[in-house]
């Protein structure tokens, strides 16, 4: 009998994200499971990926697990850091190979809200 517990659905999702990442890719990373999946890929089979965090951190040195894309660990000795809008621009202009966003707020059409939770006028 194995003493290892089976993976829960969130762990499986992070694992599957990691499998979609190939070495030497530029990976756009959002908060939550996308971070976990990308970091798992970097530590296992894709050590040479360049991580572009949603908040603007560009390929920081490895350190502790960030608690969000706004965590200082996502900027740790980064060769470059940008504003969030520029980071999204990199993605929109095709400067990344693959992107993963968390689902903090998604409407019925699949639009992801990455700037305000709730109604914009109430922020």
Any overview of this molecule?
- The protein has 123 residues and is α/β, with parallel strands linked by helices.
- It has helices spanning 9-19, 33-44, 84-92; strands at residues 26-29, 50-53, 57-58, 80-81, 98-100.
- It has one domain: Glutaconate Coenzyme A-transferase, CATH 3.40.1080.10.
- The strands form two sheets. It has a three-stranded parallel β-sheet, with helices on one face.
- Strand 1, helix 2 and strand 2 form a beta-alpha-beta unit.
- The protein is globular.
What does this entry show, briefly?
Helix content is 26%, strand content 12%. With 123 residues, it is of the alpha/beta class.
| Tally of DSSP β-strands | 5
CATH top level class name: Alpha Beta
Mean pLDDT: 86
Q: Can you tell me the residue ranges where pLDDT is under 50 for at least 5 consecutive residues?
A: none
The topology string of helices and strands comes to HEHEEEHE
Overall domain count: 1
The number of helical elements comes to 3
CATH architecture: 3-Layer(aba) Sandwich
CATH superfamily: Glutaconate Coenzyme A-transferase
Strand order of the largest sheet: 2-1-5
Task: Specify Rg, calculated over alpha carbons.
Answer: 15 Å
- Return the structural class: alpha/beta
Find the CATH topology.
Glutaconate Coenzyme A-transferase
| Terminal-residue CA separation | 53 Å
Range of helix content: 25-40%
Any descriptors?
26% helix; two-stranded antiparallel ribbon; 12% strand; Glutaconate Coenzyme A-transferase; alpha/beta; 123 residues; three-stranded parallel sheet
């Amino acid at each position: 009998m194995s003493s290892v517990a089976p993976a829960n659905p969130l762990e499986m999702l992070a694992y599957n994200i990691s499998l979609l990442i190939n070495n030497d890719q530029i990976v756009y990373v959002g908060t939550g499971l996308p971070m976990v999946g990308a970091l798992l890929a970097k530590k296992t089979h894709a050590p040479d990926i360049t991580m572009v965090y949603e908040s603007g951190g560009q390929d920081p040195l490895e350190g502790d697990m960030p608690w969000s894309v706004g965590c200082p660990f996502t900027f740790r000795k980064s060769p470059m850091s940008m504003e969030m809008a520029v980071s999204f621009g990199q993605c929109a202009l095709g400067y990344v190979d693959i992107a993963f966003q968390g689902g903090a707020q998604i409407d019925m059409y699949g639009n992801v809200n990455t700037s305000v939770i709730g109604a914009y006028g109430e922020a």
